[in-house]
Amino acid sequence: MHRLPARIAAVMVGTILVFVVTLAVSVLWLTRTLDDQARDNSIARVQNASETLLAKTRMLTLDYAKWDDAAVNVNRGNHFWMRDSIGTTAINGEAIQLAVIWGGLLPEDIGWTVGDRRAGRSGVLDPGLLGLAESRLAGVPLDRYEGTAFFTWHGGNLYALAAARVEHLTQRGGRPVESDRVARLAMGYRLSGQILEELGRSLVVSGLRLVRQAPSSGLSVPLDGGGDRPVAFLAWDDPRPGSEILRRLLPLLLAVMVGTAGLVATGMMLVRRSARDLVEAERRSAVAARTDALTGLPNRAAFNEALAGHAREGERAILYLDLDDFKRINDSLGHAMGDAVVGRLGQRLRSLGGDNCLLARIGGDEFVFVLSGPEAEAGIQALATAVARELQTPVEIGGHHLRLRGSLGYAVQSRAGVAGSDLVRQADLAMYEAKRRRGGRPVAFGAMIEAADRDARAIEKALRAALRRPGQLSLLYQPISAAGARRLERAEALARWTSPELGPIPPDRFIAVAERSGLVVELGQALLGQLCDDLEERPELAVSFNVSPLQLLAPSFASDLIAELRRRRISPARIELELTERLLVDDPRLAAERMGELRAAGFRLALDDFGTGYSSIGYLREMSFDTLKIDRSFVTGLERCPERRALVKAMLDLAHALELQVVCEGIETDEELALVRDLGCDLVQGYHIDRPMNLGRLAERWLDQRHEAEPA
Q1: Which of 171, 343, 442, 470 fits as disulfide partner to 384, beta carbons 3.0 to 4.6 Å?
Q2: In what order do the strands lie in the sheet with 406-412?
Q3: Which of 609, 580, 615 is nearest to 595 (CA)?
């Protein structure tokens, strides 16, 4: 039979002993706690009951003393009224058992006690008690609904005695009088044995009794006698519910302790067997929680932990890498191939970091380097250069040679107070600036980027205000004309914004801010509302309108727009929605679904800025566009560049083969107009045709002239 080593046996015995001692101490502590809590609760209840007796007697006395009829009749010495209205209460003995009136204009005190049917008599309370009550009332101001109360012995019984002046109160219409002209009223509530028995039952205390001296055992509460020392004590038996419970449960507890000790011994055998496995599993779990499963690099959780500490100026730097257009690899080669590319790139990047460098994968195609130490600033620049050079080497996966492009931005700890999260934000801004420049070179966070970020935040704040206050946003219309004649086909609606604080802001600037801040859907709704107003005003007008990808992919965009046009009785055929190539690359499936809804409703669809992105012939065929807009970058200098003319001709032939209407943008000279017309372009747009203008100017220059030119 296998026997445990001596050390394991000692641990088992020690564990059992600790358990037994802990259980015993816990039970004793619980017993003591229950007893103490019961003792404290009973003291609080009895103390509250004694105070309640005094308060009840005081309030009853005040009800009689601050009574206008009492003030009048007592001052007149109306003995009949005093007996009938006050003395009877004491004689009946239900609420009080004695009442005494003295002082003021009364020649002598007059009082009544329970069961005494006489008209009243003097000397019911001895002069000492009356003097005590008088001295306590001396501290109570006149014309106040106040009195005094205390406990006192009288005739071998303990009373809760209350006293108050018999007077009018000025708020009731009376007039205050001098203190020596005001009578006093005292009323007493007797604490009989029956009362104490009922009080003990209601307070759930055992053996409640009155004693003149504090008892040596049990519990007691002193009763205020109006002087420096208690006049009596309410005493009762010390409650011990915890001890009683322990007495009853002790046999069961001993049995449980013995059984538990046996179970602990058995458990220790199992623990010894599995402890090593559990420790190893915990270690693997801790590592996995901070490790990216795809690359084996630290993940976002580990990255955040690394940034949690503080760093001195220049001793921490962050390099942010985001792969450009990585979605194309997933879409064209599949997500499994995309994962393989990320894993391979992670291995290559890992070799670039040193001992003071942490490389983490924090997103799908996002990697972050955290460089620490005195040489962080110089090191991050060298590291950024090395990463940019590494990206130039193609990744070989599954027979494919993939050339990756990435945007690199980095930031260095500028002062000790910069938090890690702020440093990440700075590196992120630098990365987005690198993405905007499209040069593939690393960008350092600096004053210009920080200023641009502040500018973007100011624009966002002003744009939020503009969306709440109509009148700042407006639409201008640029004519789109037939290439061979001055004939308006439609007009492109262009957003304009003049902020009261910032002045005119270019559309590409505030639309980009709106997209990054989540305001683009709200902005689009506001502009579409203005567009519908103009379409209602000019029924002959047809327009094209740019729609942001984020706006189009919003779940309710198509249905809301269709419902709004139906409510206004505007035909969707009058609106051509212009979409960018970015939409087709980001989410082609959802884009096709939304575009299908719009085409079914009657809208025309145009692909804007063709040739500047990554659209394919497959996208043009599958998405069923009506119009193709060739970007102005292909038109500018067309007369001087035969290669560019050949390229535009190829675009036109492709579009016409797919039965698409073509618009050439950016026509600024007669030569450009003539060239695109000869190449076969259908429609043209640009400053040579006309500049953007408001609706009134458009009507004057184009719409009204078109009506005049139409035959009768």
Answers
A1: 442
A2: 357-361, 366-372, 316-323, 406-412, 443-444
A3: 580
* Cα–Cα distance, 618 to 109 (Å, whole number): 116
DSSP per residue, 618-648: HHHHHHT-SEEEE-HHHHTTGGG-HHHHHHH
- The string of pLDDT tens digits covering residues 154-179 is 888 999 999 999 988 765 545 555 66
Pairwise CA distance, residues 538 & 694, whole Å: 13
Count Cβ atoms below 10 Å from residue 316 Cβ, excluding itself. 26
Classified as helix, coil or strand, 159 is strand
Contact 497, 472 (CB under 8 A): yes
Q: What is the largest CA-CA distance in the chain?
A: 135
Reported as a single tens digit per residue, the pLDDT across 169-221 is: 765 545 555 667 889 999 999 998 888 888 888 888 888 999 989 888 889 99
Residues in contact with 264: Cβ distance below 8 Å, sequence separation at least 6, in sequence order:
12, 15, 16, 19
> Around Cβ 207, how many Cβ atoms within 10 Å?
12
- The C-alpha atoms of residue 624 and residue 570 are separated, in whole angstroms, by 23
What is the DSSP code (8-state) at residue 590? H
Our CA dihedral for 200, 201, 204, 209, rounded to 10 degrees, sits at 20
| pTM of full prediction above 0.85 | no
Alpha helices in 66-171 (DSSP H): 68-75, 79-82, 88-92, 127-137
d(C-alpha 453, C-alpha 646), whole Å:
42
Strands 230-236 and 316-323, bridge-based pairing: unpaired
Strands 209-211 and 230-236: antiparallel
Residues forming a β-bridge with 372: 316
Query: Which residues, including other chains, have CB under 8 Å from residue 202's CB and lie 6 or more apart?
Result: 49
User: Which pLDDT band holds residue 421 (cuts at 50, 70, 90)?
Assistant: confident
**pLDDT 10s digits, 129-142:** 999 999 999 888 88
Half-sphere exposure of 496 (CA within 13 A, CB side): 15
For residues 539 and 186, what is the distance between their CA atoms, to the nearest angstrom? Answer: 96
Q: Is the pLDDT of residue 340 over 70?
A: yes
Q: How many Å apart are CA 210 and CA 193, to the nearest integer? A: 9
- Please enumerate, as own/partner, the contacts of 639-646 that have beta carbons within 8 Å and a separation of 24 or more: 639/669, 639/671, 639/672, 639/675, 645/675, 645/679
Distance of alpha carbon 535 from the chain centroid: 42
Q: What are the φ and ψ backbone dihedral angles of 165, each rounded to 5 degrees?
A: -75, 140
pLDDT score, position 10: 65
Contact 427, 318 (CB under 8 A): yes
Cα-to-chain-centroid distance, residue 447: 33
Spatial separation of the C-alpha atoms in residues 184 and 577, rounded to whole Å: 95
CA distances from 449 to 321, 322, 514 (A): 17, 18, 18
Of 480, 509, 482, nearest to 497 by C-alpha is: 509
